[in-house]
Amino acid sequence: MHMEIHTNIPLKNYTTMKIGGNARFMTEARTPDDIQKVYRNAKSQNLPIFILGGGSNVIAKDEGFNGIVIRMRIPGFEVIADDINNAIIKIGAGEEWDSVVKRTVDMRLSGIETMSAIPGTAGAAPVQNVGAYNQEIADTLQSLEAYDSETDAFVTLRRDDCGFAYRDSIFRGKAKGRYVITSITIKLSKNQPAPPFYDSLQKYLDEHQIKIYTTDVIRDAVIEIRKNRLPDPDTVPNSGSFFKNAIVEKWQVDDLSNQYLDIPIFDLGDDKYKIPTGWLIEKAGLKGTISHGIRIFDRNALVLVNESAKSYSDLAAARDEIIGKIRDKFRVQIQQEPLEI
Ligand SMILES: Cc1cc2nc3c(=O)[nH]c(=O)nc-3n(C[C@H](O)[C@H](O)[C@H](O)COP(=O)(O)OP(=O)(O)OC[C@H]3O[C@@H](n4cnc5c(N)ncnc54)[C@H](O)[C@@H]3O)c2cc1C
């Protein structure tokens, strides 16, 4: 089938932060073959390629992208195995993630229900190992199919090939730009969800006297909690958590917990500790403040909201101010979560 190629398309219309310049070319892929075709053509013309899902974790630069942006639209939702305990489902990379969650919840399958209401596509989920409320895609992913742009071949990667870690994988690390994920295969359980749930989720369930935990009850609870903590990108431009939580070492933990008795610290093992970056930003007195048109969301300091910024450089200036203030106050280097095009 013929693929339409559009020229000079504003990336701000395709990214939830709503800033950035133009893509020189943009097209949509509806099959794995579409992907291969575009890569082969682009290679002969020496054009770079960027894969875009829902644009909810991508920041576009002001200079735009001098190449081809492929919007991932490959559909698919197929139960490929089903027994008394589990179901295995293969999902096209272009499916909307939350519709996938809803469908599995309606089938009373457990494994991704606390990842309800995360914007974006199914194919992007492995890229940063998406997660929320104690579930992450690495827990349920069995394998994925991808186009390997280095070898011009379609490959299957197993979970252990993906290098999953906290908000990380080979797809944004050492193999960044190499694979185009065309489908993911996840294994879900027929057991209903069971405690212990993530603190804030358990608190919500207790407060609402919910004692029977089914996938749809958990999904509804998560959606309610998230409504308060995260602005809706359809009406308020943002990219969700703009910073990763800080991962620090023992000496930093000792140093900080002497100074700040209330600092929350999570032991990750291997001499690594997690400190919620939202706490650091709040403690630095920055929550709710605005700079260069970018506001630190007043209900969740991890989120930056684009109130009136017109350009990437505004966002970068605001971001660098925040990073600098956190470094000066706590001697902790925080990192941006969304990738950049
Ligand atoms: C309000 C809000 C709340 C959010 N909450 C959460 C949360 O709770 N937990 C969480 O983990 N994230 C969260 N996010 C971040 C984001 O939703 C996820 O990272 C999501 O997986 C991004 O999907 P996307 O399709 O929009 O990807 P995009 O933003 O389009 O792309 C992200 C990156 O993945 C690459 N990519 C996309 N698709 C593919 C593919 N098929 N093959 C290879 N590479 C690909 C892109 O090139 C890019 O580098 C939130 C974002 C917002 C705006």
Q: What does the model show?
A:
- With 341 residues, this protein is of the alpha+beta class.
- It has three domains: 6-72, Uridine Diphospho-n-acetylenolpyruvylglucosamine Reductase, domain 2 (2-Layer Sandwich), CATH 3.30.43; 77-189, 2-Layer Sandwich (Uridine Diphospho-n-acetylenolpyruvylglucosamine Reductase, domain 3); 238-340, Uridine Diphospho-n-acetylenolpyruvylglucosamine Reductase, domain 1.
- The chain has eight helices and 20 strands.
- The protein has helices spanning 32-44, 97-106, 137-140, 199-207, 215-229, 250-259, 277-283, 312-330, and strands spanning 6-10, 22-29, 49-52, 58-59, 65-72, 77-82, 86-92, 131-132, 135-136, 141-148, 153-158, 179-189, 238-241, 246-248, 266-269, 272-275, 290-291, 294-296, 303-306, 339-340.
- The strands form six sheets. The chain has a five-stranded antiparallel beta sheet with strand order 6-7-12-10-11.
- β17 (290-291) and β18 form a beta hairpin.
- α4 (199-207) packs across α5 (215-229).
- The longest helix is centred in the C-terminal third of the chain and has 19 residues, at 312-330.
- The radius of gyration is 21 Å and the shape is globular.
- The model has no long low-confidence stretch (mean pLDDT 96).
- The chain binds flavin-adenine dinucleotide.
Report the mean per-residue pLDDT as an integer. Answer: 96
Beta-strand fraction estimate: 25-35%
Assigned CATH class of the largest domain: Alpha Beta
The biggest beta sheet is recorded as: 5 strands, antiparallel
CATH topology of the largest domain: Uridine Diphospho-n-acetylenolpyruvylglucosamine Reductase, domain 3
Number of strands: 20
Indicate the low-confidence ranges by residue numbers: none
Outline type: globular
H and E string? EEHEEEEEHEEHEEEHHEEHEEHEEEHE
